[in-house]
Amino acid sequence: MAAAASSIDRSGALEITQRLTEICGPPFARFAGPADEVAGRAARWVAVPGGPHAAAEVLRLAAAHDLTVVPRGAGTKIDWGAAPEQVDILLDTGRLAGIGHEPVGAAAAEVGAGTPLRAVQATLERTGQRLAVDAPSPGATLGGVLAAGEAGPLRHRHGTPCDQLVGVRYLTAEGELVSAGGGAPGLDLARLLCGSQGALGVLVSATLRVQPVPAMRLWVSRPVWTPLEVNDLVRTILAAHLDPSAVELDLAASGPRPRRPIDPTDPSAAARARHPSMAGRARVPSRAGSLVVLLEGGPADVVERAERLVSVLDGDATVTHSPPTWWRRYPFGPGDTALRIEVPITDLHAAVYALRDAAGAPVPVRGSAGLGVVHAALPGTFPADRVASIVAAVRGVLLARRGRCVVLSAPPPVRRSVDLWGELTGLPRLRAAKEHLDPHHRLAPGRLPGGG
Q1: For residue 360, with 0-12 CB atoms within 10 Å meaning exposed, 13-18 middle and 19 or more buried, which class applies?
Q2: With CB atoms 3.0 to 4.6 Å apart as the test, which of 172, 220, 299, 353 could cross-link to 216 if both were Cys?
Q3: Strands of the 177-181 sheet, one edge to the other
C-alpha cells in the first residue's frame, strides 16, 4: 500500500486532486497543509465531501489507487490513539452534518456525523429535549465522539454515547453505504466503530435516544483528601439510592504541605485525621480534591434528594446550581501524556495510589468515580522511559483488579516507547471486524490496537 501511494508521480497526484475536486467541489478538495496530520502523521490530500454519496466516491477513488483514508471530524482528538501508518486522504466529515426531521417528542434523533455536539444540543433544546451526551472536548462532532469512544459525566446514569445508539449509517472501505439498527441488522457490528478511530468505517450518521431536558439540576460537592476516602464516599453515595446522574472526582497535583493541627472542636477534621488512609502519612495535599454529585429531575424531588445527600456525606458538603469549573474538562493539556484508567470502583483508590507512587508525586486525576473511569495526566517533560515505567507499574497493579490503563495521547517519543493499549480482551473481535469491513487495510491503518 505504502509503495503504491509513494509511486504516484506529480501528474498522478494532480489527477487525483482533480478527481477529488470533481467529487467534492472546487473549495473542498486540496493538497494537505502543515496542520493536516493525524497523531503526527502528515496527510497528502484533504477531501470534504458534501454528502454520503460523495464520501462513497472518495473511498472508491482511494480503493482504485490503493490509497489510505483517515476520517476527521473537528480534530479535537486527532492526536488520540496510535499514529496511522500512512495518511493519503484526510476525509473531513464537516459537511456530513445536520439533524433529521423527527416529530416533536420523538424518542430518537438522527444526527450527521460531522455535526458539532453543541449544535445538536442547541437544536434539541428548542423542543425541550437533549442527548444525554456531554463529551468534554470543546467543539467535538458527534462522529468524533463516537469514533474516539468519548464520554462525559452523564455516562454514570445514561451510559456512553455508543450505549445510546439505536441506529447508524456508515461507509465501508469500498464505499458501500451500510445502515444498521432501526429494524436493520448489524447494529452490534456497527457498535465496534465506537472507539475505532475511523479504522473500521466512515460514520455518516447516528441515531441516538433523546430525552426531556431536566427541570432542575443541582451539584452537591464535598472536599476529599485521600483516594481511600473517595472510595468510602462513593460506596456511601451509591448505597443511598439517590439516582445520581453523575459522580465525578477531581484530585489535583498540588504540592504537599505539613499537616494542619487538628481542631478539637471540629468533628469532621478529627474524623479525617483518624481515617485509615491517613495512617503513616505525615503530609497531605495543599488543597482538598472534590467529589461532586449531579442530581437531575423535578424541582421538589431534586431538592429533597440533595438534602438527603448532604446528610449522608456528613461533611463540608455544599449545594450549587452550577457545576465546578473543572466539570467536563480533562486534567491533561497539550503535550501531556494522557491516561485513561478503568477499574472496579472498589479498587479506584488502589489505582490512584499506584499512579502516585510510580510517579513519585500526586498527579491530576479526574473523571467518573462512580464508575471507576478516570483520566490522569503525566507532564510532557517526563522522559519516555520514565513514562513507560509508570504505565507498567500502574498496569501491574490493575492486572489483578480487572482494570486497565490506556495511553490516550502522548508526545512522539513516548508514543514510540510505550504500548498505548496494554492487554485488550476484545482484540480478536476487533481484528475479525477489520478483516470483514476493511480487508485491504485502507482505513486508518495502524490506528486499531495491535496495529490493525
Answers
A1: exposed
A2: 299
A3: 108-112, 202-209, 165-171, 177-181
Q: Say if residues 162 and 407 touch (Cβ distance below 8 Å).
A: no
The CA distances from residue 273 to 92, 277, 279, 288, in Å, are 55, 9, 9, 14
* Alpha-carbon span 430 to 440, nearest angstrom: 15
Give the tens place of pLDDT for each residue, 385-425: 999 999 999 999 999 999 999 999 999 999 999 999 998 88
Distance between CA atoms of 359 and 362, rounded to whole angstroms? 7
Rounded to whole angstroms, how far apart are CA atoms 261 and 270? 10
Q: How confident is the model at residue 5 (pLDDT cuts 50, 70, 90)?
A: low
Strands 289-297 and 165-171 come out as unpaired
Average pLDDT of the segment spanning 13-36: 96
Task: For residue 126, give the C-alpha cell.
Answer: 428548542
Report how far apart, in Å, the C-alpha atoms of 334 and of each of 15, 180, 380 are. 37, 36, 8
Closest C-alpha among 73, 170, 61 to residue 120: 73
Q: Are 377 and 338 in contact (CB under 8 A)?
A: yes
CA 391, distance to chain mean position in Å, is 19
For residues 440 and 4, what is the distance between their CA atoms, to the nearest angstrom? 13
Indicate the residue type of 188. Answer: D
Residue 200 DSSP one-character state = S
The DSSP letter of residue 114 is T
331 C-beta neighbours (distance < 10 Å), count: 21
Residue 343 CA, distance from chain mean position: 16
Cα–Cα dist 416/40, whole Å: 12
CA distance linking residue 46 with residue 36, whole number of Å: 8
- Tell me the chain's radius of gyration from C-alpha atoms: 24
How far is 105 from 216, CA to CA, in rounded Å? 19
Q: What is the DSSP letter of 83?
A: P
Write the single-letter amino acid at 126: R
User: Is residue 210 exposed (0-12), middle (13-18) or buried (19+ Cβ within 10 Å)?
Assistant: buried
Cβ neighbours of residue 53 under 8 Å, at least 6 residues apart? 177
C-beta of residue 448 within 8 angstroms of C-beta of residue 423:
no
In angstroms, rounded to a whole number, what is the distance separating the alpha carbons of residues 328 and 135? 7
The DSSP element (H or E) to which 45 belongs, if any, is strand 41-47
pTM of the model: 0.89
List b or e across 386-411, with b for residues whose CB sees 16 or more CB atoms inside 10 angstroms.
Answer: bbbebbebbbebbeebebbbbbbbbb
Q: Is 48 helix (H, G, I), strand (E, B) or coil?
A: coil
